[in-house]
Amino acid sequence: MRTRRQGFTLMEVMITVAIMAIVAAVSFPIGRGMWLGVRLDSAGDSVRSSWAEGQSHAMNESRPYRFSYVPGTGSYRLAPDSDEFWTGSSAPRSTDPEDPTVVLAGRLPQGVFFQTEGAGATAVSEPAGPEKPGSDASDEEVNLASYQKLIVFMPDGTANTFTPSGSPSADNYAEIILKINDLPALVISMRGLTGVVTSRRENQQ
């Protein structure tokens, strides 16, 4: 009586391993791209959320709020547009629970950074710290002088926008570029007069 063969031959094992390796090689770039895309989209949500918060606080408190960022890093900051909040080693923080003032020092998800328009896609090193989207990054970690002013939200619901040199933009239009690895950059923009925010990938019109 013929006995049933147990196990697999060496050739069968080698073919199976080769097929698994091919599948993994094809799937990894796709999965990596999707994961990086999720991080980039999450970073965009953080920026849009901070803009909405700045606009809301400016209107509710009847005073301007400034959004600034550090080019080449993932650090950004939202605080009242007053020298006391943007000079010195750290901003004043009220202990009064009735004080509505907000000072948000955040950081984009790990690997995502603000790219200066026209610059290469290279991030500069920044202090270790929280890496979750919208997480706090204390003023002690980032020098206040490093922040670049982009938008000042006004109490009437409009906004003043600025160029990388710090001068008011001629068309009152703000644009910021988020980058991660070799993915197309995410461009987020705002019309200062209307407060309308739009976003697009860099290779899309």
Helix fraction, binned, reads: 25-40%
How many beta-strand segments?
Answer: 10
First and last CA, distance: 73 Å
Number of helices: 1
- Largest sheet, order of strands side by side? 5-3-2-1-6-7
Main β-sheet, in a few words?
A: 6 strands, antiparallel
Tally of domains: 1
Task: Tell me the radius of gyration.
Answer: 24 Å
Overall residue-averaged pLDDT value = 80
- The helix/strand class is alpha+beta
CATH fold call: minor pseudopilin epsh fold
SSE pattern? HEEEEEEEEEE
Gross geometry:
elongated
CATH superfamily: minor pseudopilin epsh domain
SSE topology sketch:
Elements (H helix, E strand, L loop, with lengths): L9 H52 L3 E5 L5 E6 L23 E4 L5 E3 L19 E2 L11 E6 L5 E3 L11 E7 L6 E6 L5 E5 L4
Antiparallel strand pairs: 1-2, 1-6, 2-3, 3-5, 4-8, 6-7, 8-9, 9-10
Explain this structure to me?
The protein has 205 residues and is an alpha+beta fold. It has a single domain, classed as minor pseudopilin epsh fold (3-Layer(bab) Sandwich). The protein is 25% helix and 23% strand. The protein has one helix at 10-61, and strands at 65-69, 75-80, 104-107, 113-115, 135-136, 148-153, 159-161, 173-179, 186-191, 197-201. A six-stranded antiparallel β-sheet has the order 5-3-2-1-6-7. The protein has a four-stranded antiparallel β-sheet with strand order 4-8-9-10, with helices on one face. A hairpin with a 5-residue loop joins strand 1 and strand 2. Mean pLDDT is 80; it is low at 119-137.
